[in-house]
Each structure stands twice: as structure tokens, then as C-alpha cells.
Specification:
Number of helices: 14
Largest sheet: none
Radius of gyration: 20 Å
């Protein structure tokens, strides 16, 4: 854990520029006010089958990311990392916007939910929502790597590697998180939200199966979602973009990651800014996203397990 703290402190000392950091904070804060106070982005929550809606999502995600990149360029921070304005950089940036927009737009899993028997829809919806990550997050990134990056010598799939990865600091972090999760599990608000799939809604009785038959597959694909989100934001946007942006890849990613959380509670969005920054630094310095995946999965699954334990203790 000390190793991760020293890594973070060293990065902040090297990277901190009060204009860039304050500008990024004001940008994210302004977007949060527009979203939570004035519902400025409500139109994007309306699901349609029109692929042109992806252009709206591309603007929604692209403006925060590009604004921070341009702010860094205006401060002369990109000069030492080479010229980012080349064909490969622009092409990869456009691919990133396509992926995140495709994920938010993709509506076809909802059509399948409508075909499921009513008692099974909550489980089917949760399964398909999380399985969508494999199709919409992972598949485009994998294709991009095979077609463009691997031929150029990028041997690892955007940080998905154990090379140089030290598991111990992340295990220590999880040991600190575990008691906090246990404490949170006694709060009523926590139990209203978790577990994210509740196996007492009727699907098990309808199918005539034990809850483990539905819970275990759900928790597996629930983990896929966290893993592939980590691969995109800390792998594709940080490790992948570092070729052109260097350490300057972290802050633009944080801005895009923040708006991904719009629609969730304000504290969670604020937490995504802090957590996204920290995980971005770890990924950049270690050239691996496994630590971020470990922390994400460890927290997510521990929250699910703690909630299940509380419900079992309460006789459910």
C-alpha cells in the first residue's frame, strides 16, 4: 500500500499544474451542475434505435475529454511528449468516442428483455446489461488492437498483463476496504441498493431452481462489466493514449469517466473523479490494469457479498 501511495505522490508532484487541475475541476463541476441541477442531459437517457443518436453521445463524452487535452496543449504540456496531432492519434481518439458512444446507445438487449417472461425479466435485464459490456466495450477494443496496434508492436492488450505487476499493494488496499464495506452493509440505504440483483423477486420460483443458479452467473457477468470498463478507461484511454499524451492522458480520461457516472448519485460521481484519477496513475506507472480490475472487482463483489449476508441474517 505504501508503494501505491508513493507512486501517487510522485506523479502529483511531477504532473501538478494549478491551471490545468483547476480548469479540469471547474469543467467537471460545471457539467455536474448542468446535469444534477438543471437536467441538461436528460435527452440522452431516452433510448432509441436510431444509430445517429451515437453522435449525441460522442459530443457528450468527447467535449470533456478534448477540452482537457486542449487545456494541456495551451499550457505547453504536450510538447515534450511528441506531436499528438497525427493520423494515428486522431484515429484512436475517434475510435474511443465510437466505443463509449456505442455502449451508451446500444438498445437491442432491451428488446430481448421484453421477450422474457415477466417473472424472469429482472434477472434477464441484469444479465444482458452486464453481458453488453463484452460486446460493446471489449469486442471493439480487441478488434482495434488486432488490426492496428498489434502490427505496430503493441504486445499487450491495453495493460492486460501481469508483467511487472505487484499484487501485494492491491491486496492491502482491499484489506482496508473490507471493514468499510462491512460497516456500510448495516445501513438501510446500502441494502436498498445492494445486492444489485435480488434473488427473491420471483424468477427462481418461476424457473424452479436454487438461487445460486441465477446469482452466480449474474455475479460473473457483473464482474465482466467492471473489468471491461477498467480496460477502456485506464487501458485504452491512458495506457493506449500515453504514446502521444504521456502522463497527460490521465486527466482527460478522468473528465470522460466523470460524465459516464451522470445519472448515479452525486457522491458516486465525485468518487469516480477521485478513484478514476488514482487508478489512472496506477495504470500509467505500472503499465497494467490488473490492479484497477482487482480493486474494482474486490469492492463490487465484497459489497454484493456483504449485502447478501445481511439479507440472509435478516431471514431472507
Amino acid at each position: 500500500m505504501k508503494k501505491l501511495a508513493l507512486m501517487l505522490i510522485a506523479f502529483v508532484r511531477e504532473d501538478f499544474d494549478w491551471v490545468v487541475y483547476l480548469g479540469t475541476a471547474l469543467l467537471i463541476g460545471g457539467l455536474m451542475v448542468a446535469n444534477y441541477q438543471y437536467d441538461a442531459f436528460d435527452a440522452l437517457t431516452r433510448t432509441t434505435h436510431d444509430p445517429l443518436q451515437m453522435f449525441s453521445f460522442a459530443v457528450f463524452y468527447g467535449v470533456p475529454w478534448l477540452s482537457v487535452v486542449l487545456l494541456q496543449a495551451a499550457r505547453g504540456r504536450l510538447q515534450s511528449d511528441g506531436d499528438p496531432i497525427d493520423r494515428d492519434f486522431v484515429r484512436m481518439a475517434l475510435m474511443a468516442l465510437f466505443v463509449v458512444s456505442f455502449v451508451d446507445w446500444f438498445p437491442y438487449h432491451l428488446d430481448l428483455v421484453d421477450q422474457a417472461p415477466p417473472p424472469a425479466r429482472s434477472w434477464v435485464r441484469g444479465m444482458l446489461w452486464n453481458m453488453k459490456s463484452t460486446l460493446c466495450w471489449f469486442t471493439p477494443m480487441a478488434i482495434w488492437w488486432v488490426v492496428f496496434d498489434r502490427p505496430r508492436g503493441v504486445a499487450r492488450l491495453y495493460g492486460f498483463t501481469t508483467k511487472g505487476f505487484d499484487v501485494k499493494p492491491y491486496l492491502m488496499c482491499l484489506s482496508v476496504i473490507a471493514p468499510l464495506v462491512a460497516w456500510a452493509s448495516f445501513q438501510p440505504a446500502f441494502l436498498r441498493t445492494y445486492p444489485t440483483y435480488k434473488p427473491w423477486t420471483g424468477v427462481e420460483e418461476y424457473l424452479g431452481v436454487h438461487p445460486l443458479v441465477t446469482v452466480l452467473p449474474y455475479e460473473l457477468v457483473y464482474g465482466f462489466d467492471f473489468s471491461f470498463v477498467e480496460m477502456f478507461f485506464r487501458g485504452f484511454l491512458v495506457i493506449g493514449m500515453a504514446k502521444w499524451l504521456g502522463r497527460n492522458a490521465v486527466l482527460p480520461m478522468v473528465a470522460m469517466y466523470a460524465v459516464l457516472h451522470f445519472g448515479k448519485p452525486v457522491p458516486e460521481t465525485i468518487g469516480s473523479v477521485i478513484g478514476g484519477y488514482i487508478l489512472g496513475v496506477f495504470a500509467l506507472r505500472s503499465k497494467s490494469i490488473l490492479g484497477g480490475i482487482m480493486l474494482h472487482l474486490g469492492m463490487a463483489w465484497s459489497m454484493e457479498a456483504a449485502a447478501f449476508a445481511q439479507h440472509v441474517l435478516n431471514g431472507r
